[in-house]
Prior knowledge:
239 residues, alpha+beta, Porin, eight-stranded antiparallel β-barrel
Amino acid sequence: MSLGFDLAMASGVRSQYPPQHATQQRVPRKIMSQSASTPSGLQPASPTAGRGRWPALVMLFALALLPTSARAGPAMQAGLGVVGTGSSWRGDGGGGAAVRFGYRFLGWLAADVLVREQLLSVDQRLNTGLTLGVTAYWPRQGVRPSARIYAVHQHEEGLVSVLENPWGVLLGIGDGIRHRAGGGFSAGAEVPFLERGRWEWCIVTNASATYFPDTSLGPAWYVGGFVGLGFNYATGDPP
């Protein structure tokens, strides 16, 4: 009887304390996978993270365009310099001169005209290019980087024809003149070195690339550089 009583008591104790695995709760598989892939103490990245940076970037870009120099207001512009050029034709190269006139009307944006006259080696031809474009500046103190896009109309004529009718070069009239149209891009900088009242004198330099889709009359590409002297005449309030 004593043995039976002991067995009954032991079974009663086990019924009050169920096995440990029975008290564990089942954890959903999705939560377990997230907790396993996320380090302790860190929250998973939100899908909208980073979107708040765009307004700040736009604001910084707008602030960069604001004039930071007293000389970066509206101004009339002019410049004169030398150019060196090469083309997509093998062995073709040369140089000449260029003159530019423009008006900077937003402090950082200018509309301009640039005319260049160059003598190229292949066929001993004279190229007269008239470009119309817009130039954007970084209006800052000291060196001002710039970028320009432009459309170009170009006359290409052999030097023999030029000597026979020099005035035809200016008017685009004469035998053997090839008319071509294209467009291009240039990047450069203004380096101011003298200021007097409304006048600002600077060194101007840039590198350019020009493309002509019609290759039956000449090279498709011209690449070159320009360096010269320029000035800006402020039309707003004097600095």
